[in-house]
UniProtKB/TrEMBL annotation:
Listed InterPro entries: CHP02241 (IPR011747), Phage_T4_Gp19 (IPR010667)
Coiled coil: none
TM spans (from-to): none
GO molecular function: structural molecule activity
PANTHER family with a match to the protein in the record: CONSERVED HYPOTHETICAL PHAGE TAIL PROTEIN (PTHR38009)
Protein name: Phage tail protein
Length: 145
C-alpha cells in the first residue's frame, strides 16, 4: 500500500442537508442496504427453493458526537419539521483528522427520525453527547462515480 492510500484510521463524518452543514460527528452507524429475498417453492422440484430478490431496504443512519455549537443547527432542522414536511438530500463525508475526504455518500429523501440529547448525572461525569437518527430512501450516485 502506498503512502497516498493510507486507510482512514481516524475519521470524522461531516453531514450536510441540502447544502446546510450540520457539523462533524464522531460515529456513524447504519450506512448499508439489504436485498429482501422472497423464497418460492416450485411444485415438483424438491431440490431447492428459489430465492427471488424483491426490493432494497435501507437501515436508519445514526450519527453521534459531543455537544457543540452545531447542535443548534440540528435542533433547527428538527424544529422545521413541525411547520411542514419536505424530504431533503443529505451528504455524509468521511474525513481524516486533517480534513481530507476519504469517502462520500449521498442519501435520497432524508427525514429526521430521532434526536437524543445528553444525560446529565453528577454521579457519572461523562462527555455530553448527542445522537441523531435519519431515515432515507437510498443512495445517490455521485457524478464521476
Amino acid at each position: 500500500m502506498s503512502i497516498t492510500q493510507d486507510p482512514a484510521v481516524s475519521v470524522c463524518f461531516v453531514v450536510t442537508i441540502d447544502g446546510i452543514e450540520l457539523g462533524s460527528f464522531n460515529t456513524c452507524e447504519g450506512l448499508g442496504c439489504e436485498v429482501v429475498i422472497e423464497p418460492r417453492e416450485e411444485g415438483g422440484n424438491n431440490g431447492h427453493v428459489w430465492q427471488l430478490p424483491t426490493r432494497l431496504k435501507y437501515p436508519n443512519v445514526k450519527l453521534s458526537r459531543p455537544l457543540t455549537r452545531d447542535t443548534q443547527k440540528v435542533a433547527k432542522w428538527f424544529a422545521s419539521m413541525t411547520t411542514g414536511f419536505a424530504r431533503k438530500t443529505a451528504h455524509i463525508e468521511a474525513r481524516t483528522g486533517d480534513g481530507v475526504m476519504v469517502a462520500r455518500w449521498g442519501l435520497l429523501e432524508v427525514v429526521p427520525v430521532r434526536w437524543t440529547g445528553p444525560t446529565f448525572n453528577p454521579e457519572s461525569p461523562k462527555v455530553a453527547t448527542e445522537t441523531i437518527e435519519i431515515a432515507h430512501h437510498g443512495y445517490m450516485m455521485e457524478p464521476g462515480a
